[in-house]
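Predict the 3D structure for this chain.
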Amino acid sequence: MPPVKPTPSRQGKQQSPFLKSTTTALRLLLWLTLSSGIILFNKWLLSPTRFPYPVTLAFWHMLFCSVVGVIAVQCKCVPTQNVSWTTCIRICLPVAALGAAGLTLGNAAFLYLSVAFAQMLKANMPVIMFIVGCLFRTHKFSWETCGIMVIIGAGVAASSLGELQFSGLGSTFMLGAMLSEAFKMILLQTMMQRTDLQINPVNALYYVMPASTACLLPFVLVLEAQDVHKALPNVLPQSPALIGSAIAACLLNIIAFWVVSNTSALTMKLAGIVKDAVLIVVSAMLFGTQLTLLGLCGYAVALTGIGFHHYQSIVQTQPESIDPKSQEPLLNKSQSSPKLALHKEVRA
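Done. Predicted structure below.
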């Protein structure tokens, strides 16, 4: 019998690894570019002469995302996923509140901190995740991991000492933003382990963003509404910038969920490290931020600790990530599940 020639479908399967790698790279590039661009743009927009209202800016972004989500779902642009009221109250509402707090505090930090120093402070995120995870027993305490966290913390502390325009208030806001993000991720991990919730990006906007908007509305009315009304003649010329930033924020929410759902946690974290390092250099050039040798050395120490932390995570999970029948990493099989991707993002 003559050998069977490969069919076009089989040839397509042979090309799939290349296509998959290319698609992943394009996703990451789009996420990195949009994420970095929004950070730089928000820093520019939140200047005292333009729109120095961080709570209102976060509220506007979430309101815009809510409207997009509602229109897309109601017009049947995407398949509707029904979520029970119990799930909304137990998962969506707390996640929305913590997400709103994190975004608002992060915006407020940019009123007092340079983008470069804010990114250096964000290197402390693994430390905060480890502490919060140990408190809620989602992370296992070990002295080895604790030692790595000390290295990261020492590096960030050195960066703070080297910052020429250090702001205690801005640093407090950034710490609050990171704590909110840590609690949100721990909550997601805990709740999604107990439910079978899987949701697409647009439906996530539909269910989460309106709750975030509602959480922020009282703070907008109490803290900034009067000031925004008084400064309306100066605010109106910024309308194109506000609309553009809202569109970019909406796209980022969708793309971020899409990337997390289809990319391994390790790849996401390594890409995030590259993004932060590039953002420090680019922001220093754009905004004229002076970087000190002590600050850069401290950040390098923190990055070294983060690298050790990721390596430790790989070593600890490697024995469990091999399927004895197929000898293939199970991580690749779980990438198609947003639920598993979110779990790995939290644990790593």
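Confidence is low (pLDDT under 50) at residues 1-15, 320-348.
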